[in-house]
Amino acid sequence: MNPSLKLALVLLISLEVSFTQKLGINLILIMIGLILILKTRPSGLTLVRLIAIPAIPAATLAITIGAFSPGHDWFFAAVLASRIYVYVCLGSAVTLATTPLELARSLEQNCHLSAKFAYGTLAAINLVPRIISAVKTIRAAGQMRGLTLSFWSPQLYFKAILSALTWSDQVAQAMESHGFVDDQARTTAHQIRITAWDWVILVVSLALVQGGLIVLP
Amino acid sequence: MTQAIEIHNLSFSYEPQLPVLKVADLTIPRKTMTLLYGPSGSGKSTLLKILAGLLPKYGGQLDPGSEISLKATEAAMMFQDPSLQFAMDTPWHEAEFALENLQIPPVEMPARIQAAFATVEISHLAHRQFATLSGGEKQRAALAVIIAMQKPVILLDEPFASLDPVNRKRLLQQLQTQVEAGKTVIIADHDLSNYQAVNPNVIQFGTDHQTQVLTSQAVRQLLVAANQQPVIPAKPAAQFPAILTGTNLKITQPNQVLIDQAHFQLPANQISLLTGESGSGKSTLLKVLAKLGTYQGSLLYAGQELRKYSARRWGRKCGLVFQHAADQFLNVTVAEELALSQKQGRHPYFTPANLQNALTKLGLAALTDRVVYSLSGGQQKKLQILVMLMMGQPLLLLDEPFTGLDAKSAQAIRELIDACQATAPATILVVSHQLNGLADWVDCHFKLQNQHLVDRGEVLA
């Protein structure tokens, strides 16, 4: 499915789910999300993280509402907890099945987002591995100069922010050195099309969610 | 289009009244290879960036009277540090991005990119993530993208800094083919070895920020002198007591085994040189020794397993001079960097008088109020090595310490290290492609080839 439409669909569904209190539809959406996630053959660790990390806010929310709110409404507690999993599962289904480059290209071509924004963000995402290794390097550099920089050390963040500032300048220079000019027309190596089938999936999915919201408890 | 690139009355400065580059009159002929040669900080990179249109857009001021007969859109530039030039995740995507920007029809892209990648012999790396490429591989990828862009003028800033002689010759040959195909190639370099075969024009940059076109005779002399590859006499490592011992050592990278060795030992309190082709794993080995990477097997330092040392304890035993100087700095100004090393450092050589002396010799004495990131590449390198020497760790690893340094600065650095060694000897391991001046300086020499660290030392009769 077209990356931009996929993103729009998930955002629309998440928005609807936020304003309704239906447990059934939440559970069905979680199942669909999980199936889509499994189709991308994620690593075991990714799966465990996807399930374990949201468990903390989900459980906290459920216990607060169910055990400590005046009504002890355990149904509402389950709705809220499952809602968190809906967001996580649908969101991961999109991010695991789409590379950032595909999404950037689609946003540029289909949604006519400015190329500067689409590729600037993409360049920032591609910086992530460098940010992680930069933090490691900064800590090692500190260690070798007799300074232990903990994760809350201002010096670590000062240096990290400084690196980020230089990088933002460098990313701009890098893009410009490869011919990027703001607001200038570009060709596209890969056409990202929105097919009739994409629209059908979007409309049918939304209709099914509406139906589910009316019919299910 | 066909007339030469003319520069008149160019003056560029970062701070008012302090020009870092002044060019009265300079003519760079088209369809030839021109070499900008001079010591670090003499303004070579600055001129390239001005020609590429990146300066003064990204800092500094160009004097209003400056004239340059080259449109920035005619030129494509390759940066000194290739990893700073990529906005995408793989070489192929980067090349596509560049060609999209140039509004090349999509049907022409694959053939054009494939041809450029084949020219630089990186077709096998096209879809690898940049994070998994070595410094030399990144440099070739950056060049491939530039070639794919097919601009009439190609600007290269220290394009061979992380390449070994074999790859260096290969790339130069490929650039020569570009010149024969009608391109203008302008290279900034401080190291002239291997240029003899391509016979470039040479423009010399002086420390007084003046430029001068050299006569063909002067060029020939310079190139011949630079081409004499030094032989590095070294002693066998086994004749010294070992401080670091590797057993069944295995160091790997995604898709690649870099080192797989049954036994290795590093001699204590000697200067050892480590050479090897680009991408063979020299930097990775240094990172492992600095505990910034993982290894299998055993690595004993002074009888204790490396992975058992805590990061804090190891930081007191081992210093790594990073390939990128800016990574080393923790403060803002030169004075603050020096103050930190004075406070935390333990090297007995650096008395206030000796430190002042070292600063003068390295040409840093007048720069103490400067922000470290505003120094030239060479000045950053010298400061970086100085502040690490002051720390006085018993094991010091240097990753390409002479990159971006002119011969005089490199010599000053070696003399400083010698003076430190005479006061309190440390075990020093140097990775360097730049072999000039190292012949009488190193004690031992290892070459990393075929996943082995081979001791190149010979017992001299």
Automatic annotation (TrEMBL), chain A:
Keywords: Membrane, Transmembrane, Transmembrane helix
Keyword Transmembrane found: yes
Transmembrane spans: 20-38, 50-68, 74-97, 196-216
Localization terms from the record: Membrane
Membrane topology recorded in Swiss-Prot or TrEMBL: Multi-pass membrane protein
UniProt xrefs under InterPro entries: ABC/ECF_trnsptr_transmembrane
Regions annotated as coiled coil: none
Name this protein carries in UniProt: Energy-coupling factor transporter transmembrane protein EcfT
Biological source species: Limosilactobacillus alvi
TrEMBL record, chain B:
GO molecular function per UniProt: ATP binding
Domain ABC transporter: 5-232, 244-461
Keywords in alphabetical order: ATP-binding, Cell membrane, Membrane, Nucleotide-binding, Translocase, Transport
Primary localisation category: membrane
Membrane protein topology class: Peripheral membrane protein
Protein name as it appears in the record: ABC transporter ATP-binding protein
Location in or out of the cell: Cell membrane
UniProt xrefs under InterPro entries: AAA+_ATPase, ABC_transporter-like_ATP-bd, ABC_transporter-like_CS, ABC_transpr_CbiO/EcfA_su, ECF_ABC_transporter_ATP-bd, P-loop_NTPase
Residues passing through the membrane, by range: none
UniProt xrefs under PROSITE patterns: ABC_TRANSPORTER_1, ABC_TRANSPORTER_2
Entry's family note: Belongs to the ABC transporter superfamily.
Top-level taxonomy: Bacteria, Bacillati, Bacillota, Bacilli, Lactobacillales
